[in-house]
Write a structure and sequence with these properties.
There is one protein chain. The protein has 719 residues and is α+β, with helices and mostly antiparallel strands. The protein has 29 helices and 20 strands. The radius of gyration is 33 Å and the shape is globular. It binds manganese (II) ion. The site of manganese (II) ion has 4 residues, from loops.
């Protein structure tokens, strides 16, 4: 629990230097650190933190945390000066003159991450992720300084007001802990989680801490006895090793309790870590331990042969240990232990201290580690709303993911809930598009099967096979969904072009015009100008998808031969472009304002007297007795219109929640047209009118509004 104590307010630069000297030998480098301290100390003179101590304590503590993950001298120097550009009278030029471009760039990077202006939570997150991507692509050390900065701020969180504490704690849990996890910096990840829990759910936190405390002596004794048994066993077989007792973090216990486990189940699970010299000895030790202590079935995991994408390598097993207690045992090499604890930071310290050829395995895994940033960048390049972007980053990149394997043993990281389709598209789009089936652990599974951690997945493909539209619902990742959608948009375009060309040829034949004579370059240009197309393909496309009529197009050139006076163009606002009426080429179409259909609703057309076709939702009560005057209508899939919809929101108390509701839905990229109160009293009803892109968004909107505890129900208005 020492990590949760207050920061040391009497920390000195000597404390930092002492730590640095344990792994940095170059005196020149140490001098730079000293100079950075002098510089920061001077600049921060007279400034104090909210906790009352001199400001310089903060950068000193950040530097000290950096030494625990063996940061290099440039990172530590930048850590000491990380708030100088932000809070003091100092220009980047001045700093660069004193410390050169590299250190200054690091400080500038951290400063950029601090300067965030945000209006809504989502925008803030988006901005944050984008800045992290930028910061990351410049230098990973920027993020590492930021993590240490955040950790020290969390340790001193008691000094700020309670509402700010909760915001910071949330941020740490949602953004910083996952980043630390993906960079493999376990220490920082788990301390950030514990500190966040302490401020977000103090009752739970202290309850677990107290229970741990009460059982500590007994647990320590059992761990000690088990440790002796294993030591004896390994010594007998001459395997040099070291055993560490391992305390589970409060947050990880909280997580297990949250998943329905009982506290007694958890503290029965005692934890040990065995460190040995070589990978081979890892397996030897495992075999010996299993020969004496019966392993729990299905709990063995081999991350040595198949490392996790964040570089984690370890053997995991759970055994029935002494006195019938369950023990979680991790076995790994000393080298790997460094990496598992410090992640990417351990990697740079290896490179500096032991020469670059010390461990080729570590070098190649750094590449893998950056995978997580690559995933964010990939997502940021997909066409999706800001909201979807943030949700995808949260669900698909930052959340605890599952790891599946190709039959060759390559690791594919996927979000929980992913299906074989996501797996296939992750390997390659071409593999995804030609998928015909999937085999998981030697069993044939449907394409919407939910993959589990450690599944071995074989994708069967067939060159001539193509995606099906149902796949969009079967996939979990938005990148997969977008790739499937892209396939259809491209293909639908081809189909429309084909259809348009065929229609034009047929009509020209009917009018006894020669195709090649009609489509001269000059005529093509005239038609393009008239219907706002770019080239011949787009002319076909416009005919094919109904934006222009074939007679209209021919009339641009041969006007006199037809009775239709003018080309029919549909402006983008026109409803006609959104709805296709079966069997009728051009007709006036209105969306009925009794039931306000939106894109995706099941619809039906009603032939009015003299006012074209009015389109209703299929269950509109105004259409109950009129089936002989109806006509089939369809949504045109190529629409990007927004549709007016009207919702009735039933509120179960008498307070005014309008602002709250409007705020919560404006984050969804829905434009609100108006909101009014229909009835007041103990309960009230709001009538909300807004514009949505279609049924999908509308359904999400309703779910979102229903989340408010004061909302009894939400329904679509029908007059
Ligand atoms: Mn700071």
């Amino acid at each position: 629990m020492s990590s949760l104590s207050k920061s040391l307010d009497d920390i000195k630069i000597e404390d930092v230097l002492e730590k640095v000297r344990t792994y940095v030998e170059d005196e020149e480098q140490i001098k730079v650190i000293e100079k950075a301290y002098e510089f920061a100390n001077l600049k921060h003179k007279g400034q104090f933190r909210k906790s009352g101590e001199a400001f310089i304590c903060h950068p000193l503590n950040v530097a000290l945390i950096l030494t625990t993950i063996y940061a290099d001298y440039e990172t530590i120097s930048a850590g000491l000066m990380h708030d100088v550009l932000e809070d003091c009278d100092c220009t980047p030029e001045e700093m660069e003159e004193e410390f050169g471009p590299t250190i200054t760039k690091l400080v500038k990077g951290v400063t950029k991450l601090t300067n965030i202006n945000f209006s809504t939570e989502n925008e803030y997150l988006i901005d944050y992720y984008k800045k992290i991507i930028v910061g990351m692509s410049e230098d990973v050390r920027v993020i590492i300084i930021k993590l240490c900065d955040r950790l020290h701020n969390m340790r001193t969180l008691w000094a700020i007001p309670e509402d700010r504490q909760k915001i910071k704690a949330h941020e740490s849990l949602d953004i910083f802990a996952p980043i630390a996890h993906h960079l493999g910096i376990h220490k920082i990840k788990s301390e950030l989680e514990d500190l966040s829990l302490r401020y977000l759910k103090p009752e739970v936190f202290y309850d677990i801490a107290e229970k741990l405390n009460k059982t500590k002596i007994e647990r320590d004794r059992i761990v000690y006895d088990m440790q002796n048994e294993i030591t004896e066993l390994l010594n007998e077989h001459h395997i040099p090793h070291e055993i560490k007792g391992r305390s589970k973090s409060i947050y990880s216990i909280y997580n297990k309790l949250d998943k329905g486990k009982k506290f007694s189940d958890i503290y029965d699970l005692l934890a040990l870590r065995v460190l040995v010299n070589t990978e081979q000895e890892c397996y030897l030790a495992l075999g010996l331990i299993h020969s004496v202590f019966r392993p729990l079935p299905k709990r063995f995991k081999d991350y040595v042969a198949m490392p996790k994408p964040n570089m984690y390598q370890s053997l995991h097993t759970t055994v029935f240990g002494i006195e019938g207690y369950l023990f979680e045992i991790q076995i790994r090499t000393y080298d790997i232990d460094e990496v598992a604890e410090n992640g990417i930071a351990a990697h740079w310290s290896y490179k500096e201290n032991k020469g670059s050829n010390s461990n080729a395995n570590l070098t190649s895994t750094t590449e893998q580690k950056l995978q997580f940033f690559k995933s964010i960048i990939d997502l940021s390049q997909e066409k999706m709303s800001n909201e979807d972007f943030v949700n995808s980053v949260k669900d698909e990149v930052l959340n605890n993911n599952i790891y599946c394997f190709t039959p060759k043993g390559d690791v594919i990281e996927l979000p929980r809930g992913a299906t074989p389709l996501d797996f296939a598209y992750k390997i390659h789009t071409k593999v995804g598009e030609t998928t015909v089936g999937a085999i998981v652990n030697n069993n044939i599974v449907p394409l919407d099967y939910e993959l589990q951690d450690n599944d071995i997945v074989k994708i069967n493909t067939n060159k001539s096979s193509t995606p099906s539209k149902e796949w969009i619902n079967m996939a979990k990742c938005s990148t997969t969904k977008n790739k499937i959608k892209a396939f259809f948009t491209k293909n639908e375009r081809d189909i429309y072009i084909e259809r348009g060309k065929y229609t034009l040829e047929k009509e020209l034949r009917k009018r006894k015009l020669v195709f090649s004579e009609f489509l001269t370059d000059e005529n093509i240009k005239k038609i393009c100008d008239e219907i706002h197309a770019d080239d011949l393909d787009e002319i076909y496309l416009s005919i094919g998808n109904g934006k222009a009529t074939v007679n209209g197009v021919i009339n641009v050139i041969h006007r006199e031969e037809d009775t239709t006076p003018k080309i029919v163009k549909f402006s983008p606002k026109s409803i006609d472009a959104d709805i296709i009426v079966s069997g009728i080429d051009k007709v006036k179409v209105n969306l009925a304002n009794c039931c306000n259909p939106v894109y995706g609703d099941e619809i039906i057309g009603y032939i009015t007297k003299g006012n074209g076709i009015s389109v209703h939702r299929i269950n509109c009560h105004n259409l109950e007795n009129v089936d002989e005057r109806t006509v089939d209508v369809l949504w045109n899939t190529n629409t990007n219109k927004r549709y007016l919809t009207c919702l009735l929101i039933y509120i179960n108390d008498s307070e005014n929640h309008m602002l709250d509701i409007v705020q919560s839905i404006s984050m969804m990229n829905v434009s609100v047209d108006g909101i009014q109160v229909l009835g007041r009293g103990d309960k009230s009803t709001y009538e909300l009118t807004c514009y949505v892109t279609g049924l999908d968004q509308l359904e999400k909107l309703i779910v979102n509004i229903e989340k408010h505890r004061y909302v009894e129900k939400v329904e679509r208005a029908m007059r």
